[in-house]
Automatic annotation (TrEMBL), chain A:
Membrane topology: Multi-pass membrane protein
Cellular localisation: Cell membrane
Source organism of the structure: Nocardioides baculatus
Name the record gives this protein: Sugar ABC transporter permease
Domain called ABC transmembrane type-1: residue spans: 83-335
TrEMBL record, chain B:
Predominant subcellular localization, coarse grouping: membrane
Keywords, in A-Z order: Cell membrane, Membrane, Transmembrane, Transmembrane helix, Transport
PANTHER family per record: ABC TRANSPORTER PERMEASE PROTEIN MG189-RELATED, ABC TRANSPORTER PERMEASE PROTEIN MG189-RELATED-RELATED
Species whose genome carries this gene: Nocardioides baculatus
Transmembrane segment boundaries: 20-40, 86-107, 119-144, 150-171, 192-213, 253-274
Domain ABC transmembrane type-1 positions: 82-274
Record-given protein name: Carbohydrate ABC transporter permease
Pfam families given in the database record: BPD_transp_1
Family: Belongs to the binding-protein-dependent transport system permease family.
C-alpha cells in the first residue's frame, strides 16, 4: 500500500516536472499577455509608458462600444469590413483545403501507384516554405502582366488586375446570373444595412484580391493536411480494407464505412487547426496587400495590428483582438460539438450497416 | 455471382484498377505542375533582368542571364538576416521538439492530479489567436527587460500548444504494455519516456520537427514586435520590409524572387533530409515479415 502511494507521488512529481517548462513559457508569453491585453482593451492607453501607470484612463466598455455600437463610425465600419472579409475567407479556405488535402491523400494512397514520394514531396513542399517567400512569388504570378494573366491571355481570357481589384466575387456571380447589376446595385440592399455596412456590402463575397490570398493559402496548407491524412490512412492496415472488400463492399462502401470513420479524428484535427489558422490570417496581408484594395483584404488580425502599431489606438486594437478571440472560440466550440454529435450518429449507422452487410453477404457476394 | 467464378471476374477488376491508376496519374501530374511551376518561375526569374521579367513572365529562360539580383541582395543586410534566422530556428526547433514531447507524454500517460486542468488550459491556449498577443507580447518583453535581445526572439516560441496536442495524440496510440515491462524493471518515468516511448514516437517526432522548423522559419508577427534593432532582423522581417520599403512595393521582381529563393533553400534541405523518414510501410513491412 505504501509502495502504491510512493509510486503515485513519484508520478505526480514527474507529471508536473514534465509539463512545467511548457506551462512557464505559455504562462509568461500567453496568459500574462492576454491578461494585460484585456486590461488595455478597457483603457485609452496610447502606447507611451506603462499601461498600468496612474495617468491611464479607464474607459470601461467604450472601446468595445466603438467596435459594434452606433457611435463607432469609421472604426466600426473598418472592423465590420474586416470581419466580413475574414468570414468569406474562412468559408472558402477551410472546406477547400480540407477536401483538397483529403483528395490528394486518397489519390496518393493507392497501392499500385509509383513515384508516390515525388508527388508527396511536390505537394508538401510549399507548406515548409516561408509564407513571406510564397507571398512574394504570388505577387509576381498574379501581377497585372504576370504569369497567370499571360496564361489566361493565351486562352483568350482577359485576366483582372488581381491586386487592384476590390470587386466581390458574389457580386460578380450575381451579376453573371442576372440577379443584379454591379454597376447599379438594387436599392433594397444598398438602402439599408446593419452594423455600419449595407446589406449589399455584407453579401459581397471575397474580393478578387482576397481570392488570390485564398488560392495561395489553399495551395500552401493543403500539403500539411495531406500529410496528416496520409499518416492516418497508412495507420489503417491494408488488411482491413481487403477484408471489407472480400465481405462484398464496393470501393465507395469501403471508403464510407471503413476509411472515413477511421479518418474522423484526423478530420477533427485538420478542421480545428484550419479554423484557428484562417481566422488569424496576417502574414499574407502584411506582405501582399496591407488591407487594400478598397479595404477588401483587411482582416481583424491585420486591422488590430495596424490600429496599435501604426495609429497608437491600443485600447481599440486590443478590443478587436478580444472580439476576434471570442469568434474563434465560438466557431471551434461549435465545430467540436458538430463532430461529437456526428460521431455518435456515424457509429450507430456503421453498426446498422455492418449488421445489414452481414445479413446480405451470404446471398449477395461481390458486386 | 459467387467467388468461384473469379477467373472471369479478374480481368475486369484488373481493367478497373488500371483505369483508376491512369486517372490517378493524370490528376497527380496536373497538380504536380500546379505545385512545381511557381518554383520554376521563381528560380528562372531571379536570374532575369527586371525588364525581361516583366516583358516575358512565362519564359523559363532568362534573356539576358543576370546575377544582378543576387549581387544587390549581398550588398544589403540579407546575409545578416539569414544568419539570424538560422540561429533562431535551430534553437526554437530543438526546444520545441523536446518540451512538446515531454508535456505531451505527461498528458497522455502520467497520472497526476491536475492533468485534466493542464490539458484544458493547453486546449484553451490553442484557441488563443496568436495575433492578439502582438500588442501585449511587446509589453511583457519590455517589462522583463529583454525587448530587442535574442531571448525575446527565441523564448516565446519555445513551446507550441499544437505541438503538445499532436504528441499527446500520438503517445495515446502506443500500447501501455510497452511501458509496463520497463516500469516493473524499476526504470524512472523519465527513463521510460526517453529510452522506451520516445524511440517509438519517431514518426510523430519527425512530423513535429518539420512543423517546428517550418513554424519558426515562417514566423513573422512575433519578430515584428519582439525587436526593432536592425541587427536582430530575421529573414521574414527583413525581406518583408525590403520589398515594401527599399524596393518600392516589391516591383523589382528578380530581387524579390532571389530573396524568396534564398530563404527557401534551408527549409528545402531540412525537408529533403527528413522526407525519407516519412516513407510508408516501415512498420507494415515488419508485420508481414
Amino acid at each position: 500500500m505504501s509502495r502504491d502511494r510512493s509510486i503515485r507521488r513519484g508520478q505526480a512529481l514527474a507529471g508536473w516536472t514534465f509539463v512545467s517548462p511548457t506551462l512557464v513559457v505559455l504562462g509568461l508569453f500567453l496568459a500574462v499577455p492576454v491578461a494585460m491585453a484585456l486590461w488595455v482593451s478597457f483603457t485609452d492607453w496610447n502606447g507611451r509608458g506603462s499601461p498600468f501607470a496612474s495617468g491611464i484612463g479607464f474607459v470601461g466598455a467604450d472601446n468595445y462600444r466603438e467596435l459594434v455600437g452606433e457611435q463607432g463610425g469609421l472604426t466600426r465600419s473598418d472592423f465590420m469590413t474586416s470581419l466580413r472579409n475574414n468570414f468569406f475567407y474562412v468559408l472558402l479556405v477551410v472546406p477547400l483545403q480540407t477536401a483538397f488535402a483529403l483528395f490528394l491523400a486518397l489519390v496518393l494512397n493507392q497501392r499500385l501507384l509509383k513515384a508516390v514520394g515525388f508527388f508527396r514531396t511536390a505537394f508538401y513542399f510549399p507548406s515548409v516554405v516561408s509564407s513571406v517567400a510564397i507571398s512574394l512569388v504570388f505577387l509576381f504570378l498574379f501581377s497585372g502582366t504576370g504569369v497567370v494573366n499571360s496564361m489566361l491571355d493565351a486562352i483568350g481570357i482577359d485576366g483582372p488586375t488581381w491586386f487592384n481589384d476590390s470587386r466581390g466575387l458574389f457580386h460578380l456571380l450575381g451579376d453573371g446570373l442576372g440577379l443584379w447589376s454591379t454597376a447599379d446595385p438594387p436599392s433594397a440592399l444598398t438602402g439599408s444595412g446593419v452594423l455600419g455596412l449595407t446589406w449589399w456590402q455584407w453579401i459581397s463575397g471575397p474580393s478578387v484580391a482576397l481570392s488570390v490570398i485564398i488560392m495561395l493559402v489553399v495551395w500552401t496548407t493543403a500539403g500539411t493536411f495531406m500529410l496528416m491524412f496520409l499518416a492516418a490512412l497508412q495507420d489503417l492496415p491494408v488488411e482491413v480494407e481487403e477484408a471489407a472488400r472480400i465481405d462484398g463492399a464496393g470501393a465507395w462502401g469501403v471508403f464510407r464505412n471503413v476509411t472515413l470513420p477511421h479518418l474522423r479524428p484526423t478530420m477533427l484535427l485538420v478542421t480545428t487547426l484550419g479554423l484557428i489558422g484562417t481566422w488569424q490570417v496576417f502574414d499574407q496581408v502584411y506582405v501582399m496587400t496591407q488591407g487594400g484594395p478598397g479595404k477588401s483584404t483587411l482582416t481583424p488580425a491585420y486591422l488590430s495590428y495596424s490600429y496599435a502599431f501604426d495609429n497608437q489606438k491600443w485600447g481599440i486594437a486590443a478590443a478587436m483582438a478580444f472580439v476576434l478571440f471570442l469568434i474563434i472560440f465560438a466557431m471551434t466550440s461549435f465545430q467540436r460539438f458538430l463532430f461529437r454529435d456526428r460521431d455518435a450518429i456515424a457509429t450507430k449507422r456503421a453498426e446498422k450497416r455492418t449488421k445489414k452487410a452481414h445479413a446480405n453477404a451470404p446471398a449477395g457476394g461481390a458486386s | 455471382m459467387s467467388t468461384t467464378s473469379s477467373p472471369s471476374a479478374k480481368p475486369m477488376v484488373r481493367d478497373r484498377t488500371a483505369l483508376w491508376l491512369f486517372l490517378g496519374y493524370a490528376v497527380l501530374l496536373f497538380f504536380a505542375f500546379v505545385y512545381l511551376y511557381p518554383f520554376l518561375v521563381q528560380v528562372t526569374t531571379s536570374f532575369k533582368t527586371n525588364t525581361d521579367a516583366v516583358a516575358n513572365p512565362l519564359s523559363l529562360v532568362p534573356d539576358p542571364f543576370s546575377t544582378g539580383a543576387y549581387g544587390e541582395l549581398a550588398e544589403k543586410d540579407f546575409p545578416l538576416w539569414f544568419r539570424n534566422s538560422v540561429i533562431v530556428t535551430v534553437l526554437v526547433t530543438a526546444g520545441r521538439v523536446f518540451l512538446c514531447s515531454l508535456a505531451g507524454y505527461a498528458l497522455a500517460r502520467i497520472k497526476f492530479r491536475g492533468r485534466g486542468a493542464v490539458f484544458t488550459a493547453i486546449l484553451a491556449v490553442m484557441a488563443v489567436p496568436g495575433v492578439i498577443l502582438l500588442i501585449p507580447k511587446f509589453l511583457v518583453l519590455n517589462y522583463l527587460g529583454i525587448y530587442n535581445t535574442w531571448p525575446a526572439l527565441v523564448l516565446p516560441l519555445l513551446v507550441d500548444a499544437a505541438g503538445v496536442f499532436i504528441m499527446k495524440q500520438f503517445f495515446e496510440t502506443i500500447p501501455e504494455s510497452v511501458e509496463e515491462a520497463a516500469r516493473i524493471d524499476g526504470a524512472s518515468t523519465f527513463r521510460i519516456f526517453w529510452s522506451v516511448v520516445l524511440p517509438m514516437a519517431r514518426p510523430a517526432l519527425i512530423l513535429l520537427t518539420i512543423l517546428s522548423f517550418q513554424g519558426s522559419w515562417n514566423e513573422l508577427p512575433h519578430f515584428l514586435v519582439a525587436s526593432q534593432d536592425p541587427d536582430l532582423f530575421t529573414l521574414t522581417k527583413g525581406v518583408g520590409t525590403l520589398t515594401s520599403g527599399q524596393l518600392g512595393s516589391g516591383k523589382q521582381y528578380p530581387i524579390s524572387m532571389a530573396a524568396a529563393l534564398l530563404m527557401t533553400i534551408p527549409v528545402a534541405i531540412v525537408f529533403f533530409v527528413f522526407q525519407k523518414y516519412l516513407v510508408r510501410g516501415g512498420t507494415a513491412g515488419a508485420e508481414k515479415g
